[in-house]
Predict the 3D structure of the following.
Amino acid sequence: MLVLQDIAVTYQNTVPAVQGVSLEVPDKAVVALLGANGAGKTTIFRAISGLLNFHKASIVRGSISFNGERIDQLNATQIVQRGIAQVLEGRRLFADLTVDENLRTGALASRDSAAVRRSYERVMDLFPVLRERRKSVAGYLSGGEQQMLAIGRGLMASPKLLLLDEPSLGLAPFLVQQIRKIISEIHASGTAVLLVEQNAQMALAVANYGYVLETGKVVLAQPAAELLQEESVRKFYLGLHEGGERSNRGTLRLRRPERRWSL
């Protein structure tokens, strides 16, 4: 479905942020993108969703294709219309608008009113608490409710691919488990997910496949279940030695990945 081929991105034409990244998200799959702060995860999301120009960045090499069509030269609205939606890190809700009003902003690129109604009902079925809070002002929702609203707003565009950027950030452990369940339900409904998540254990538990980034490069790519067993990943992201004891996290050093995979 989504193919990044040898993508390189620089900021202000001088600062390299992503250097030759290739990755794939198959149809109806969940793919996790892991990496420390500054590894290039957010830049990759901006490249996919057409938001680089807002951050004085540009793709200087490579291509991005979605369902066989090049999208790296399209603007953000055109990319949403092709079927890609992003849930930004930090939720980025309109705090003074109601739940319903926030949800409607997620469908502004759609011209199909029937599809918007279907998406709205899908969101309400997925998040019953939002149905109860429809007229509530978003800024007064709890952190968990705000994250549900942010994801719901992304789903209002009826995406074929949903980009989720740190959905569990700042949430209590029991809410992280709710978010994990929600991602699984979105996946089960037929929407592919590309997930950036610092909680590696949660991300790899819900994903089919994972990529690990370091300083703008992919250093490991494996099925998620195998990554969970990868000793370097366990030490760096989960802080575990063999036997389960905690370790200090250091610099991740891994072999170069295979580029292609299948479900």
